[in-house]
TrEMBL record:
Source domain of life: Bacteria
TM spans (from-to): 231-251, 272-290
Keyword check for Methyltransferase: no
Phylogenetic lineage: Bacteria, Bacillati, Cyanobacteriota, Cyanophyceae, Coleofasciculales
Protein name stated in the entry: VWA domain-containing protein
């Protein structure tokens, strides 16, 4: 690089990256504050209503089933705060799958909550879902079919059960073909087959005690379904690259020439090399962060 004949901020090599830096920071700020880039989501929540989830009294306080319902209510409360709310339908299953909130997905969280409460008060519900057995395949299949009727939204099936079960490969293949992500929560023992199902379909898996159900629903699944973090990370990464190019002349003049007394040609090479280095490394770092956080980008879902 040649010596500076005017102030460094008057050079295009400083001005152009500075403009890109400003635009990237503004875009990241807008994504964070306004939630730009959040996907449109449809969620089918399948609750295990078999006898093992409540014992002798249906939906008794303190039982697994009761905690499942409270977790759904927490999810709906969070959903009500969204500008573009998720479309939600709640299913109950034992040996048979029944819709607990009508046959349509709805964005009105209060309506879904009221319909769920009303359905659970039906004394015939335990018999309607054949509560003496648990058919995970039927729950996944029914949820997949329901979500298949939803267009222009990401399709998420959130299944809650208190035990592991065999999952048919055909059911999993059908979910993949219809672009339905199967997310599973197992209360108690781990379930390798449900974990594999979640991994295969692009969903997430969690297992733990009943006390964790509400936290799983609101902090993990709701946050994941409605995340725009990939856009924030993308714009911050682009801002970092723009910053490195913005600092090129500053590094050249004040650091390498001024502080280290390097010759101009070597100083210029090091300054440009630094910007090129971060231009290559930053996308790799962003990609690794996306994979760690399980945040898709090329698909809006």
């Amino acid at each position: 690089m040649s010596s500076f004949r005017r102030a460094f901020w008057r050079y295009p090599l400083f001005q152009i990256p500075l403009m890109f830096l400003s635009l990237c920071l503004i875009a990241a700020l807008l994504c964070w504050l306004l939630g730009l880039g959040r996907p449109k989501v449809a969620v089918a929540i399948a609750l295990d209503l078999s006898t093992s989830t409540y014992g002798t009294q249906f939906n008794a306080p303190g039982t697994i089933m009761y905690q499942e319902v409270q977790a759904v209510q927490s999810y709906l409360a969070e959903n009500a705060q969204l500008r573009n709310a998720n479309q939600v339908q709640v299913l109950g299953f034992g040996g048979v799958v029944q819709s607990l909130t009508g046959n349509e997905f709805k964005t009105d969280s209060k309506q879904v909550s009221d319909e769920l409460t009303q359905a659970l008060q039906n004394p015939d519900l335990p018999q309607l879902v054949a509560n003496n057995t648990t058919d995970i395949n039927a729950a996944i299949q029914k949820g997949t079919e329901a979500l298949s009727g939803v267009s222009d939204r990401c399709r998420e099936l959130l299944l809650v059960t208190d035990g592991g079960a065999n999952v048919s490969p055909n059911v999993v293949s059908n979910a993949v073909a219809r672009k339905v992500k199967v997310n599973a929560i197992v209360v108690g023992a781990d379930s390798p087959e449900l974990k594999l199902t979640a991994f295969t379909t692009g969903g997430i898996y969690a297992s733990g005690e009943t006390s964790n159900l509400q936290r799983f629903f609101t902090e993990r699944f709701f946050t994941r379904f409605n995340s725009n973090r990939q856009w924030i990370i993308l714009w911050l990464g682009a801002a970092w690259i723009a910053l490195m190019w913005t600092l090129t002349l500053i590094f050249d003049k004040f650091i390498f020439q001024g502080l280290f007394k390097l010759p101009m040609n070597l100083s210029g090479q090091l300054s440009l090399g630094n910007a090129l280095f971060w231009s290559v490394l930053t996308p790799i770092i962003i990609w690794q962060i996306w994979k760690t956080l399980d945040l898709p980008f090329f698909s809006s879902c």
